[in-house]
Amino acid sequence: MSARSYREAAKAAVRRALREDLAGYGDLTGSVFEGDGVARVVAREAGVLSGVAALEETARQVDAALAVEVFIHDGERFTAGDAIAELRGPLAAILAAERTALNFLCRLSGVATLTATYAAETAGTKARIAATRKTTPGLRALEKQAVVDGGGTPHRFGLFDGAMVKDNHVAAAGGVAAAVARVRAGAAHLHALEVEVDTLEQLDEALAAGATIVLLDNMDTPTVGAAVERVAGRALVEVSGGVRVERVRELAEAGVDVISAGALTTRAPWIDLALDLEV
Fold first, then answer.
1. Which DSSP category does 70 fall into?
2. Domain total in the chain
3. CATH of the domain at 103
4. Choosing from 217, 230, 249, 253, which is the catalytic residue?
5. Which of 7, 89, 180, 273 is the residue whose CA sits 20 to 30 A from 191?
6. For this structure, is 134 an active site residue?
7. Would residue 196 show up in a list of annotated catalytic residues for this protein?
């Protein structure tokens, strides 16, 4: 995803969020405060930052006179007590922007921080940590970028940019080979094809059908190791299915190329960040 596309996604997400919070009426409490002020986004715990674009866009959409200075950038680590950014401008604008800006920063930094924990478990191996399509509706671009900020890879963005034969496609077609044949018939010749398999028998079918990537779904570690040996470099090997951080190291050492985990976005805790007004 290009920087421009990401900025546009952040702009749209912030617009929706502010519409929820202000509803066209504004901030009934904060709007009574006049004059200018200074506030800092401060970390209450350690983490990896993501969401600066959403912070800046929130300030811009609330009031163009609200200036943002960033001290820590996306992908960088911070500790408790660190100042992440400073907002300067109308007090009413700072107060109106506070919760929306923090919601984005806390959520996205949580995804980046959890991803960094997963990625650290692959050190010294060839395995990469990847996101899935299990994202918050409307926030996919931001959450996928948060995974990248944490040291992971975004995987395919949506159904439009990668062909993947999954269990329901196999069921609909009547078998792995039949499903692959149908997808290949309708795909451009440059497209890679990933096939999800549940057993070693299905793996053999997928390889025989010409899969360029195989996804080992919900296999135990010894079976994953056997599958990697069976593939023998003929395809990229991805593993997925309820992957918790405690299991990442053993899967990476089994020789897989990619470990995808929905938990990066579905189980990421929010990072505790606050906006402190300087008085």
1. E
2. 2
3. 3.90.1170.20
4. 217
5. 7
6. yes
7. yes
